[in-house]
Amino acid sequence: MKSICNGKRYISTNMADSKKIVLIGAGNVATHLGLSLQQKGCEVVQVYSRTSESASLLADMLGVPYATSLAEVVCDADIYIVALKDAVFQELLPVIIKGREKALFVHTAGSLPMSLWEGAVSRYGVLYPMQTFSKQRAVNFEEVSFFVEASGVEELDTLKGLAGLLSPRVYEANSEQRKYLHLSAVFACNFTNHMYALSAHLLKRQHLPFEAMLPLIDETSRKVHELLPQDAQTGPAVRGDHNVMSNHLDLLCDEPEIKELYEKISESISRMNKV
Q1: Cβ atoms within 10 Å, residue 252
Q2: pLDDT tens column, 46-85
Q3: What is the CATH number of the domain that holds 42?
Q4: Long-range CB contacts for residues 96-105, cutoff 8 Å, separation at least 24
Q5: How many domains would you assign to the chain?
Q6: Which of 118, 138, 173 is the last residue of a domain?
Q7: What's the per-residue H, E or C state across the chain?
Q8: What is the average per-residue pLDDT within 169-196?
Q9: What is the CATH number of the domain that holds 265?
């Protein structure tokens, strides 16, 4: 089994696919991870969620039992993958580990440090898939980058092997680096999608379809596979075309929040490109 770690080919010797896995959480990340790990031959033995609706939905997909109380979660699994909202994870951490201290515990959060596990358990780590997840859309994990961190060599080997079952893009990243990965992903993904939403809003006002933007969006996305984002920048701000920008701002006179956003982003583009 091979994976990439820091640009080098890596061969796992830890038989990650033979471990019994419990999913703590049944949201978007847990759903895609659980289904994909099972498809790769991993033994997912149970799902936990505080709501029976979420827990039973994922458990039925996997054909495994579920629990809505952490007291009902099995204690003999090898790996517990915690995919919960950050605040919920920190609240439930003492209960999650109780009676299961010898297992390997990992969380999937980009924004939380690995050190949250320290002093609570001896074997722990982070398995962070850097991707946007929606339950209604399938994810090709072959194209997803995984970032792993662990408390020791054996634990790191296990996580590399587990991630390597799903993707050839497996990298080590410490907690500080992962914070910046998560921050950068917000700009590259979440903010970008919000721009799509604003575009759709403006088009709808003029009875125009958002789908007209899709070829433009696709071409912009393709370009950054070949060019640095700064080199791929186009539009009136990078050209210093103040007449066009002034006309655009006039069109936004009744949308003050969007107008301010337009001005700020245009200024940022101009500064970065020294227009």
Answers
A1: 16
A2: 999 999 999 999 999 999 999 999 999 999 999 999 999 8
A3: 3.40.50.720
A4: 96/24, 96/70, 97/121, 98/70, 99/75, 100/73, 100/75, 103/77, 103/78, 103/79, 104/19, 104/78, 104/79, 104/80, 104/155, 104/158, 105/79, 105/80
A5: 2
A6: 173
A7: CEEEECCEEEECCCCHHHCEEEEECCCHHHHHHHHHHHHCCCEEEEEECCCHHHHHHHHHHHCCCEECCHHHCCCCCCEEEECCCHHHHHHHHHHHHCCCCCCEEEECCCCCCHHHHCCCCCCEEEEEEECCCCCCCCCCHHHCEEEEEECCHHHHHHHHHHHHHHCCCEEECCHHHHHHHHHHHHHHHHHHHHHHHHHHHHHHHCCCCHHHHHHHHHHHHHHCCCCCHHHHCCCHHHHCCHHHHHHHHHHCCCCHHHHHHHHHHHHHHHHHHCC
A8: 94
A9: 1.10.1040.20
| 208 shares a domain with 163 | no
> The domain containing residue 60 runs over which residues?
2-173
**CA–centroid distance for 65 within its chain:** 26
Residue that is last in its domain, among 173, 194, 210: 173
What is the reported pLDDT for 85? Answer: 87
Is 156 found in the same domain as 45?
yes
Can you give the pLDDT at residue 4? 45
- 158 and 210 in one domain? no
Co-location of 103 and 188 in the same domain: no
Instruction: Give residue 16's pLDDT.
Output: 65
Mark whether 59 and 160 lie in a shared domain: yes
